[in-house]
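Try this one yourself first.
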């Protein structure tokens, strides 16, 4: 990761961006910018120029702009604390950061894609655990409208990958942080497949980082003779999750699509889940950030 800061010297935008974008070894290029109209306009103009040039468009992959309030006082302890939380929230809610820093890995998506079973069940179960929880087995089965070995096998796979965890001595299941990122990726893939003619630069970068062939997902998805990889598998799974009563795309607005969701651990720490504590997620700092 490489970073630059723009605060007082507004004329330095082009130089800062050039320094960031021509760093070919960094997956994330972070630009902290004083939130002024002039700064935004200069950055937008520069990015538009890079994007319009086929020779430089790909350099924009991994560029992240973090806007810093103009009145920020670095000498104030309370404002520094706020800024730390602001940056943490920015990083925590970003899919690219999650992939680059290993919150979602190539192994995770490979195992998820290779699991068979009824089409749509694995992502429907994942979405259900993330949104309504798995507190009581029969209730969970009723919500999905299915039971038996296919569902048990899905739960075993999701647990093995680390997408869900089980409290001590319990059949209950809780989502991990990976769930949020995998579901966000599923929504992004599904949306771009329906609205674009190719993956966006950032999604292409994410797929490459996960070891997924960016060409996957653009073939005829419902031809059983065509080999399908992770992207195709996820898009198809999202569609068929509706057969199990789960709308994974719920909340994604066509006019203002956003592909990140907050992980609220507190709703699983109310006493309904046996021995559930932040220790289940192995990363208390992240839990504090996402709660």
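Now uncover the answer:
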């Amino acid at each position: 990761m490489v970073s630059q800061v723009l605060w007082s010297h507004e004329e330095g935008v082009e130089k800062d961006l050039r320094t960031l974008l021509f760093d070919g070894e960094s997956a994330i290029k972070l630009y902290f910018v004083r939130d002024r109209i002039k700064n935004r306009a200069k950055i937008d103009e520069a990015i538009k120029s890079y994007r319009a040039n086929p020779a430089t468009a790909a350099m924009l992959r991994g560029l992240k702009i973090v806007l810093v309030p103009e009145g920020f006082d670095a000498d104030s302890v309370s404002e520094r604390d706020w800024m730390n939380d602001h940056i943490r929230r920015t990083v925590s809610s970003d899919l690219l950061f999650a992939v680059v820093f290993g919150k979602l890995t190539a192994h995770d998506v490979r195992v998820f894609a290779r699991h068979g079973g009824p089409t749509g069940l694995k992502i429907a179960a994942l979405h259900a655990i993330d949104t309504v929880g798995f507190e009581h087995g029969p209730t969970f089965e009723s919500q999905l409208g299915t039971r038996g070995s296919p569902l048990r096998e899905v739960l075993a796979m999701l647990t093995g990958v680390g997408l869900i965890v089980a409290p001590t001595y319990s059949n209950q299941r809780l989502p991990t942080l990976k769930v949020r990122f995998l579901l966000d990726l599923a929504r992004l893939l599904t949306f771009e497949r329906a609205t674009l003619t190719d993956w966006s630069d950032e999604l292409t970068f994410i797929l490459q980082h996960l070891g997924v062939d960016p060409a996957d997902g653009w073939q005829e998805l419902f031809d059983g003779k065509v080999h399908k990889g992770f992207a195709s598998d996820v898009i198809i799974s999202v569609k068929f999750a509706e057969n199990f009563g789960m709308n994974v795309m719920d909340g994604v607005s066509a006019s203002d699509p956003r592909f990140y969701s907050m992980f609220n651990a507190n709703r699983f720490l109310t006493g309904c889940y046996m021995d559930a504590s932040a220790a289940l997620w192995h990363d208390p700092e992240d839990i504090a950030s996402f709660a």
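Discussion: The chain is about 45% helix and 5% strand. The mean pLDDT is 82.
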